[in-house]
Amino acid sequence: MLSLVPVLLAAATIVWIFVFLLPGDPARLMAGGQSVDPEILNSIRHEWGLDRPAPLQYLCYLEKLIRFDLGTSYVQRRPVVSIVAGSFPPTFILAFTALLLAAGAGLVLGSLAALQRGRLLDSFVLILALVGTSMPVFWLGMILMLLFASRLGWLPVLGYGMEGAFIPFTSVRLPEWDHLVLPALTLSLVSLGAIARITRASLIEAGTSEFLQTARAKGASRARVFVRHTLQNALIPVVTVIGMDFAGLLGGAVATEYVFAWPGLGKAIVRAIGLRDLPVVEGGVLFLTAVFVLVSLAVDLAYLYLDPRIQYAPSG
Amino acid sequence: MSRVGTSRCSRPGGARGLLVLTLLAAAGLAGACGRSGPPAPSSEQVYRFRLHEDPPTLDPALANDEFSESVVLNVNRGLVVLDPKTLEIQPAVAESWTVSPDGLVYTFRLRDGVLFHNGRPVTARDVEYSFERLLRKATGSPRRFLLAPIAGAKEFTAGTSASIAGLAAPDDRTIVLRLAKPFAPFLSELTMANASILPREIYDDSRKAYLRAPVGCGPFRFSRWEQANFIELLAFDRYYGGRPALDRVIIRMIENKTSALQEYIAGGLDSLDEPPDDNDTAMMAKVGPEVHRFPFMGTGYIGFNLALPPFKGNVALRKAFNYAVDKQYLWGVLFPGSSTPANGIIPPGIPGHDPDLPGYPHDEAKARNLLAQAGYPAGNGLPPISCWVNTGEDNRRIAEQVQSDLKKIGVDITIREVDWGAYIAAVSGSPEKPGQAPMFRSGWSLDYPDADAILRPLLHSSNWGPSGNFGRYKNAEVDRLIDQALVVTDPKERADLYRRAERIAVMDDPPWIFLNYYQARTLYKPYVKGVVLSPLGKFRLPLDRLRIERGST
After folding, report:
1. What is the pTM assigned to this prediction?
2. Of B218, B360, B352, which is closest to residue B297 (Cα–Cα)?
3. Residue of A nearest to B455 (CA)
4. pLDDT range class, residue B373, cuts 50, 70, 90
């Protein structure tokens, strides 16, 4: 966990530099409109510390971070923490559901392809995986929307819904389930191909291992050999891909959020970039970085379960 | 300086939080997604419209964009309000007012029985508080200049005076405003959302809860706001103007234009601000009859940077560019129905608009002659010229058409497309230093129907830089006429002064390529009644006039 600190510090610095180098004056955009009184512009710059030298601005930013303060949005004038807290759950729910769909379908299709290696089903899965991976999310989302919502009327066109239940003891509202289907399906197809392909490749590789011959020689059934020995040993690279995909989906759901008007974090960050709402950009990216690191950690911990031979020695 | 929030706010993240959220999400999606609210009664009048994104703010003092105004103007009321149809100034919280003959003293008599949404009556003290709040530096309002004409306002903002000398509330129902000097559009400025009357007990809150739960005295009260999802307003039963017909208003945030159109067609929206293009025959066959077109108070143009060569001091070159652009093709063929060709600056419907202004009809031969007179025959010798546009398909297409028209007379320009933040920095410059863009595509919509609201910010030499005069136009006679019109109270005389100023700026010393007077296009379902197609634009919609009549078409 301690390794999280230098990673986040490096991420914070890189994000701050990039954001600082963005052309444009945040004060000018905070003032809004095309006509701004220069005196008002100066007072905005002063109020938000934008008239200070860059190194001082950076130090102030770091000093706040140490206190777990992501700052205040220039535009909305409320804490970045509350903006991130409001927009992360929808992104998380979307990415998580997409991952469930992708992992479930990917594992099944990958397994079937491996079992039917060289046959028609294998080719079908490989083509499906290639198409799924190559398809632009924006285009795919629009096609699914036009087909299932506009033409067939089976599902809502877009949105998160207004009446979903709240998670107990939180202010996080779940989406209405029918609103979740199309965005989650769209996003899942990005990962499905990769998961199916890696599952197939891993299973084929594991299928040639000597320990399988031993298991068969000991009289294990075909099903047990496949599930207990082949699949479990093949899962390590699959889990790695799933973990990385999940982190990628969290940050990469922005196109899906845009198409389906999903109130997620990716969209909030993109909007903040346009408005030069620098604290929201910095806070949002930093938060996603932390999530990425934590997901990687969870993947590493999953290895311990999947392969008892793996052990993490204490550092030093 | 006060800031919202403290580090005590719950911080999302952390492995345990992630795990809990994961499990809850999975469990919730499986079983807990029942509708939490009761189904809406079928007779309930609900109106749903789209904004592209969350309004940046619902604090009237901070509102400076059309999305914020679309909500603020329906939750709040000021002393006076603009009639969206006739554009006349109407009583609102003030039931009447008088102006002294010298144009310096405005005395408002407040209406009896105006209530805030929390049930408290509005008094003159609230007007006093609201105006002081707008002017106070700590509020950070980008539009405190609206009240700057009041005597002592500048000293109050600067902190050299504890009160505003020209603001008095002699009793609970009277407000007296004394101006430092006559300012003809003052009443118009009081119609702006920023001059809304606010309850002190809500807005004197160090935690700034009002940012997410505003309280006003308008026809709709705020109900809830889900970030990037929707805002819900409910009819205010005790609104002084009578309860609105609509029970509920849902404002939905949908950024993508294509998705929003699909949602409108599917019935999830009752209106839409971006109808399909007139050239999109398939879509227009579906929704064409629901498209409403109406002029609104705005002018589009391509500005010249007059502080830099080749446009500096070269009137012939600017005229040549004007004659070269085929505006009939732009607005008749490329963007049919979205605008009308502009001959000048002041859009139709605004006092001072000159229908007889010749402008610059497309004339390639004249453009070539003027180009030669300017010292650049067939474009030879011109330095590299770039035209800056902010990101947007329409902006790019307009610039490309202008580029193509100029190419026909031998002028090569390049197009530089950047996002709004980079664009405004490159174009506006500072009061001391010009922007870097030689040409820039821009547009201006008026806040209120007064020619001063376009001529002063865009052409007066006191507004160089971020104040609006990006091209650094300076013409002593234009300055003089604009200043003179500000202190004249006779409307006809004022309109004449603006006409004269515009004619000089357009015909003698053009600062721009005059492109278009904007038209608004909006989709409304046939059952939405009471729609006002207002020159104020499609987002300043008076929701209290709307009603839903499902049985009708």
Report:
1. 0.86
2. B352
3. A35
4. very high
